[in-house]
């Protein structure tokens, strides 16, 4: 029973300390004459601020127009880069085609050399060893 009573008294003391702290802070905030009103609060606006509102609207429209111009500029830059990439791709495709043509010609020449070497070897004019050495027979 004594533990419960001690806990109850401690809880009341803590609650009172927190309550007094909140009360003190709210009193200081209420008494502060240097406070600043929130710019979007309805209390800071009245009927005479319609001119200020139209200025705000025109500023917002100007900012939106500026943002639109920036975005259009970015789109133009991306389109230009896309064109450059497409031109590069065409160049690379052309180079690849040329390289494939050269490879095909080189393979044909290699086949001709192999056929010639086989013909000369069959006729007994040359001898090709297993390690790739070529001897001319006389």
Considering the chains and any ligands shown, give keywords for the structure.
138 residues; 4% strand; two-stranded antiparallel ribbon; mainly alpha; single chain
Explain the overall architecture.
With 138 residues, the chain is mostly helical. It has two helices and two strands, in the order ααββ. The chain has helices at 2-31, 50-122, and strands at residues 126-128, 134-136. Strands 1-2 form a two-stranded antiparallel sheet. The N and C termini lie far apart (126 Å).
Offer a concise description of the structure.
The protein is mainly alpha-helical.
List the helices and strands and how they pair.
Blueprint: H1 2-31, H2 50-122, E1 126-128, E2 134-136
Antiparallel strand pairs: 1-2
Mind telling me the C-alpha Rg?
A: 46 Å
> Could you say which overall geometry the principal axes of the C-alpha atoms support?
elongated
Mean pLDDT: 86
Largest sheet: 2 strands, antiparallel
Percent of residues in beta strands: under 5%
Structural class: mainly alpha
Helix and strand element order: HHEE
Quaternary structure type: single chain
Report, as a whole number of angstroms, the end-to-end distance.
126 Å
**Overall number of strands:** 2
Q: Note poorly predicted spans.
A: none
